[in-house]
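Chain and backbone:
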Amino acid sequence: MDFSELQLFFIATPNIIISLLAAVYMYWGTPSATATSNACIRYFSLYFLMLFAAFCSIAGRNSLGEFVSVTIVQCCIAVALVMLVAGLIHRRQMSVKQFILKRHVITLAMIYVLSEVILFTYIQNVIAYRVITAFLFSSAVYTVCLSLTVPSSQPTRGERWMNLSLYISIVCCLLLLCITITPAITQYWQVLFITSMAFVVNIFALFAGLHAMLLDDHVQLYKKASNTDPLTQLHNRRYFYDQALKMISLAQRHQDDICVLICDIDKFKAINDSYGHDVGDQVIVAFAQTLQREKRAEDSLARFGGEEFVLLLPKTNLNGALGFAERLRQAIEKTQVPIGDKALAVAASFGIASCSSANIDDSLKQADQALYQAKAQGRNRVMVYEPA
């Protein structure tokens, strides 16, 4: 069925405009701070750019011819959906190349394009069939994207927005399938117009979801950086204080024991003076890794500065904290830091105090006094704070 250039232009124009704006704003207007986010932005920009090319082909259908137009449209849609999935895969730091080169991915895309171009163009040239196939394929891809958007059981706000946009897109596809196969919609013009408006909603929803997700990733990255020690990748003092207030409050509410432990690398200044600050940094990293490996999942570990580290131990009394600190001390004693063809032994002293008050600073001062006693009594030992 032939349509005038004006009719086709009217059908495609809203999608041409919104997909081009989405591609441009996604590429230049989305903040990025890492190579991963840069790559995701490029994939998502290509997704909208492919949709832009598809609707340009629809607008120029009379000039290009039906076969060329259908071929371009379906190829662009297939590539666009692959770019969407590739961007989500890259965001999870998985191999996009392996995904794209998988045989079943390429086969699925080729079957879709060939069925659209050859089967429905030459064997059964019915626009409704092409629309049904396109939306079934799109719905299947959006369903896959749902599993890629949220990699954990605790989605971020941006991931929840992205999931919502995918649900909107799936519902839009399914509604259009129902509308397409009803007897009331029989005119080619009606089908194309409804499809065009559905894509407007689809493009806008996905752009909003992708942009919200990437923006939230950017915020989470800076939030993590502000709470993380750059050398050891442990939490820093700021994060520890935030967690300590919550953990102590929870312990007091349930009348649970909670202890704080301060540890300090013995003779660290001598290590720096003898071997240099680079070796000193290696010692700190090795020390931090040992603490991270030995602590429980519920414990809060942070680097307070220099060679000093702090652990908050929930549901642990002084005897339990003493036993845990002794195990840590023995594990650290076994730690060897390679320096050329030699290995540097590491030792540490520990101070423990019970968090009997809501003020974590009081407990830290008590644990620090116990640490000072451990240093004074020869280092490489554990001391518990005892009130005078």
Notes: The longest strand covers residues 258-265.
